[in-house]
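Notes, p. 3: input format for complexes.
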Amino acid sequence: MTEQSERTRQIERVAVIGAGYMGGGIAQVLALAGLHVTIADAEPSLTQRHLDRLCREAEDFEARGLFDPGSAERVRANLHPADSLSQAVAEADLVEEAVLEQPEVKGPVLASIEAAARPDAIIGSNTSTIPIGDLSTNLTRPARFLGVHFSNPAPFIPGVELIAHAGTDESVVASVEALVARTGKLAARVNDKAGFVLNRLQYVLLKEAMNLVEEGVATAEDVDTVVRTTFGYRLPFFGPFAIADMAGLDVYQAGFRTLEEHYGERLAAPAVLTELVEGGQYGVKQGGGFVIPAGDQAALIGYRDTAYARLGQLLRELGPAPLGALSVDPRPVPSTHVATERDTP
Ligand SMILES: NC(=O)c1ccc[n+]([C@@H]2O[C@H](COP(=O)([O-])OP(=O)(O)OC[C@H]3O[C@@H](n4cnc5c(N)ncnc54)[C@H](O)[C@@H]3O)[C@@H](O)[C@H]2O)c1
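Output follows (345 residues plus nicotinamide-adenine-dinucleotide):
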């Protein structure tokens, strides 16, 4: 047995508990990767309804060229309904919990999963925000528990956050990491703080966007336009650290100075930035930055320019998103909203 295989366990059978929006998408992803996937929702009729929906969706995705040929058949062959939670998890190497984002719902479900699963089964939660350590108190063997946070819509969004709590066994994280790689998705390890990385950043962006609308700086429509056509345009290719390294850390430090003058400590330059700049690290142009070293970046610039130009071509080809005739009076922020896209609980 190699060192690697001692540290990881091969996952072949998965149970997904809660087959709604996320659980269903996760089940599709795993079935497409060739795993044996059993789903269970709150009752058998719901499970069957979700299974039918997932198979129909897969057919539709394949017909539209969004899934490879043969995918619908693969989903149909690898997805199995169970009549109960305990039946679903009995043989599973991994159980993924994807029920409602409420600790009082997740707690008993996790306890039931543990009671019915094999003692060596790994248990994951798709929680968006709840600390994994908090959820782990529902289990008697929390070493096998971690966050496995897929994003919406799971079949198409490539990133998965893996969140170990203080007591998670390293082999458990490594095993799920290998599984995620097998699905073709990209895992990132994240420490256990509420909201993790995805939603902590996403919520801050949304909150500040709402502040801008509340203050009358721009309408919701114009905020969205600015986000997706300026800095958001870079985000499929570069994260905030790479962007800052390319733009210049000294430039960001100066920008934070202005923002601090106007908005106070909340937008002051973080110490980690000030220390780099004071140590002569300005990013790509001098000394290197957070994630990009200094030096000739011709290849990087070439990639960047190609990426943005191609993204432009794709957007022209797709045309504008059909948001409909929704018109929102931006001041004050309306107390009711229309949800068209769900990427958070
Ligand atoms: N919707 C998103 O954009 C999104 C993105 C990432 C993560 N998440 C997280 O994924 C989880 C699920 O969210 P969702 O959007 O799929 O919700 P959802 O409401 O679409 O699905 C939840 C499902 O759980 C089922 N359920 C409820 N109690 C159950 C029980 N006791 N046993 C079995 N099934 C039960 C419900 O019937 C429902 O089908 C949440 O933790 C959420 O925060 C959601």
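Residues 3-190 form a domain with the Rossmann fold fold (CATH 3.40.50.720).
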